[in-house]
Amino acid sequence: MALNKIAQVVGARLYDVRDPQALVTAPSAVDSREVMPGGLFAATVGARVDGHDYAAGAIAGGAVAVLAARPVGVPALVVEDVQLAIGLLARHLLEHISPTVIGLTGSVGKTTTKDLLAQVLERHAATVATDRSFNNELGLPLTVLRADATTRYLVLEMGAGRKGDLTYLTGLAPPQAGLVLNVGTAHVERMGAGPADVAEAKGELVEALPADGFALLNADDPYVRGMAGRTRAQILWYGRSAEAQVRAEDVRLADRARAAFELVTPTGRAPVQLDLIGEHQVSNALAAAAVATALGLGAAEIADGLLSARRRSAGRLEIVERPDGITVVNDAYNANPESMRAGLRAVQALAGTRRTVAVLGAMGQQADASRARHAELGRLVADLRFDVLIAVGAGDPLAMAEAAKSSNQGVTVHTVEDVAGALRLATALLEPGDVVFVKASSEIGLGACARALAGA
């Protein structure tokens, strides 16, 4: 699109633009380091960084212009609200290229499921999917702006931090298929008193579906089942229950704790072997299979796609084998009780008889139940017979440590003040052959500890 056309779409004024007919031919970016030649740089203002300060660098890196809230001395389209403008531009693009839009949400497993689904679909047609976890009101339109007229499937991870978020996102990118994975305790502090409030927010996705669309719902989650009455779309159930139309039979953990099962769909069945560890990955794979089934793929095609799929997003059960035999499992991108339990069980299955070390920090946004939920995790660490627990930080992690210690299951418990302390202690404690699991909410920063341990 030409700059003057973009200006019309988003209501911008042109500043320092020599050629209003200059074409934007590449995706947009909010990180000046990720600008592509021919792209558009969106200068957003964050808690620590003001994108306007990087406008000149973005132009030098090949951007045609900057979408900005004020003149920046280089070619710019100036608007009152950069985030809103990016959304308007994305909606305009979708109206002209018309891919099949697939929205997915849930408390746990969104990014892994999105990555699996993308790898199944892209074997059959041009597919664009959310990068990493760019699933909010800025990341979603940036994903849309990577699509073009050749794109058949647009897979959009949709995050919801509070009620109304999914209504906004589905307004930008109306989905033809909507996938709801589960309802847990992530973001419960912002959404209300409990899972019912989370379900109300997540259900906004299926409410946005057209009558000729598909709602892919998890039959194993009672809160997701309750969303059936909130959609006009055709419902396709998935899960491990016998009532699910897309389901798993003969679930097991194969070599190195990788999940395997028999995929059953309305059109047939096929064996599935995942490259991902943990039994909880079965539900993620079934979710991807349900979408693919709704889009017309057969069981064998789906199974082949799942077989070849690999982990794409960092910090989610990311496994690094060190030369000294130590295995580092970096699951520190984020954390809530559900993902913590799944990760701990997956790592214990992976370890077998090897010594296990858990380096765990706080889970955010758990409201008044936070201390109790951390204590539950401490007991689980002990019940799973982890050998060592390193609890990182004050407050709730101390409750986790105390619960693990008082369980009398033989786990050795250490507490440290911060990430640096966790790295020092883990480095000192680890022995050849150990399996170390690192996880906490992203704001804790334990990902840096995991990466350092992996590179040691």
Describe what this molecule looks like in 3D.
It is a single chain. By secondary structure, the protein is α/β, with parallel strands linked by helices. The protein folds into three domains: 78 residues, MurE/MurF, N-terminal domain (Udp-n-acetylmuramoylalanyl-d-glutamate--2,6- Diaminopimelate Ligase, Chain: A, domain 1), CATH 3.40.1390; 211 residues, 3-Layer(aba) Sandwich (UDP-N-acetylmuramoyl-L-alanine:D-glutamate ligase); 138 residues, Protein-Tyrosine Phosphatase, Chain A. It is 35% helix and 21% strand. The chain contains 17 helices and 20 strands. Strands 7-8-6-9-10-11-12-13-14 form a nine-stranded mixed sheet. A six-stranded mixed sheet has the order 15-16-20-17-18-19, sandwiched between helices. Strand 13 and strand 14 form a beta hairpin. Helix 11 crosses helix 12. The radius of gyration is 23 Å and the shape is globular. The protein starts with a helix and ends with a helix. The mean pLDDT is 95.
Q: Helical region count?
A: 17
Distance between the termini: 48 Å
Task: Kindly report the CATH topology of the largest domain.
Answer: UDP-N-acetylmuramoyl-L-alanine:D-glutamate ligase
Strand order of the largest sheet: 7-8-6-9-10-11-12-13-14
Radius of gyration from the CA trace?
Answer: 23 Å
Low-confidence stretches: none
How is the quaternary structure best described? single chain
CATH class of the largest domain: Alpha Beta
Query: Considering DSSP H and I runs of 4 or more, what fraction of the residues is helical?
Result: 25-40%
Total DSSP E strands: 20
Largest sheet: 9 strands, mixed
Q: What percentage of amino acids are in beta strands? A: 15-25%
Q: Which secondary-structure class do the elements indicate?
A: alpha/beta
The average pLDDT value, as a whole number, equals 95
Molecular shape: globular
Which superfamily, in CATH terms, is the homologous superfamily of the largest domain?
A: Mur-like, catalytic domain
